[in-house]
Amino acid sequence: MSDALIMATRIVLTVFMTFVVHWAVAQQASPPQSIPGLEFSVEVLGSKVAEFTVQMDAYAALRRSLERGLPPLAVTDNPSDIVRAETLLAERIRRARAGAGRGDIFDEATRRAFRQLLRPVTNDRTCKAIRDDNPGEFASAVNATYPKERALSTVPPSVLEALPRLPDDVFYRFLRRDLILHDIRANVILDRLDEAIRC
C-alpha cells in the first residue's frame, strides 16, 4: 500500500472519528430527540487505485506489443525522425483503442477516488504551481494528439505522490482543473478527468 493511500485513508478515518466523537458529546449534552438517520460512507480507495494501476499496466503491455516492427525512437538531431516515430505508434494505438472514449480509464468510481486523493494535497501553493504552466483549454478527445505548441503543465511533487504510479512515458497533466493522461511516446491523450482539483 502506497504512502499516499495510507495518508488518504488516515485522513478519511480521522474526519469520521472526529465527527463521531462530536456527535456522541452532543448526544450526552442534550436530551434525546428525533434525529433523521445519517448514512456514512467511507470509500475504500485501495481497490480503485489497484484497479487503475492494473489498467495502466495493461495499456503499457499493449503499447509494447504495438511498437514491434516500428523504427526505434532514438536520440537524434532530426525532429522529423521523432515526429515520424510518434505518428506511427500513435496510429497503431488509435486503431487498437478505436472504441475508447472518455471515462474508459477514469470511470465514475475512479474519478471519485482520484478527487478524494487530491483533496488533501490541494492548497494555494499547489494551485499556483498548476496555474503557472497550465496550457488552458483545448480540444482533448481520447486518442487525440497533444498539441506541440501547448505548454506542459507543472504537476507538483505532492500531487504526484498522492496519485497512483504510471507506466514509463505516461504522465499526468492538468488542463485548467482537469487531469489528463498523456502518453508522450506517442503524444496521445488517453483519458480526461473533469474537475480533478478545486482551486
Spatial extent as radius of gyration: 21 Å
Query: So what's the overall shape?
Result: globular
Number of separate domains? 1
**Main beta sheet, described?**
3 strands, antiparallel
Number of strands: 3
Category by helix and strand content: mainly alpha
Number of helices: 6
Helical residue percent band: 40-55%
Strand content: 5-15%
Unreliable stretches (pLDDT < 50, length at least 5) are 4-9, 11-26, 29-43
What would the average pLDDT be, to the nearest integer?
80
N→C terminal distance: 28 Å
How would you describe the overall organization of this protein?
The protein is mostly helical and 199 residues long. The protein has one domain. The chain is built from six helices and three strands; from the N terminus they run H-H-H-H-H-H-E-E-E. The chain has a three-stranded antiparallel sheet, with no helix packed on it. A hairpin with a 2-residue loop joins strand 1 and strand 2. The chain is globular and about 45 Å long. Residues 4-9, 11-26 and 29-43 have low confidence and may be disordered.
